[in-house]
Amino acid sequence: MNITAEEKRMYEVMKAVYDSGIPISFKGSMVLKACLLEAGYTKDTRHTVDIDANWYSDEPPTGEHLTESLQKAISDSGIDLVVRLYRMYGEGRSAGFELSDADSGEILFTFDLDVNRPAQPTKIYEVAGFRFSGVAPVQIIADKVVVVSSDKVFRRIKDVVDLYYLSHAFSFDRKNVLETIRNSQKTLDTFRGFLHRPDDLRQAYEKFRFAGDVRKPPFDEVYQAVKSFIQTMMQ
Fold it and tell me: Beta strand 122-127 with 24-27: parallel, antiparallel or unpaired?
């Protein structure tokens, strides 16, 4: 599996945050890539340009506190990046940060941070020598199954693609997935769109772009693999 120079830089930032002891666990595409690598999946996956994470604390942190905490963790590790808050978190909205080169000012990637959402199971990952805490595989699967079960699937084709990758590396445990969904305070929808509107799903998939030279598998291959992988949830 190819890891881009930009992704290595993001893993470096994730390690710095983990080493600092900030109450953060990571999620999203960077964790998915680590999860697949540890499971022995070797084919290239879609690339990403942001970091996603959860912050947990007894009191709601201020935007200034979040920014200063991230900046200190990064600077203490000798990484020359500047952190800027461009979106404050709120109800149903994550905090958004831009990380830019200290010399040129160029924005290299973004960092989305959910604050005090329901706790999720985590584990320690390591990629190319970078260790960090990220959500467990069952949480990744559960979150994507919830999306695919609803009509959000047409706007979040990436979750279908990710389940395609996961289907090649993990077995599906219906009981654990359902329990994880409940613990996350989420609910399953009916899978109506995924099951009964395949042409609309195909159209959305064809519009979805894979960055770089990563292979985009045929829609039918992806659809059948995902349908088979999560079939016990649709009974």
Answer: unpaired
pLDDT in tens, 105-127: 999 999 999 999 988 999 999 99
- Which strands, in side-by-side order, build the sheet including 95-101? 81-87, 95-101, 107-115, 50-55, 24-27, 130-135, 122-127
Q: Hey, which bits of the chain come out as E strands?
A: 24-27, 50-55, 81-87, 95-101, 107-115, 122-127, 130-135
pLDDT digits (tens, 9 = 90+) for 26-73: 999 999 999 999 999 988 888 888 999 999 999 999 999 999 999 999
Token digits of residue 122: 């985590």
Reduced 3-state DSSP string for 104-119: CCCEEEEEEEEECCCC
Model-level pTM greater than 0.90? Answer: yes
- Return the structure tokens found at 85: 């808050």
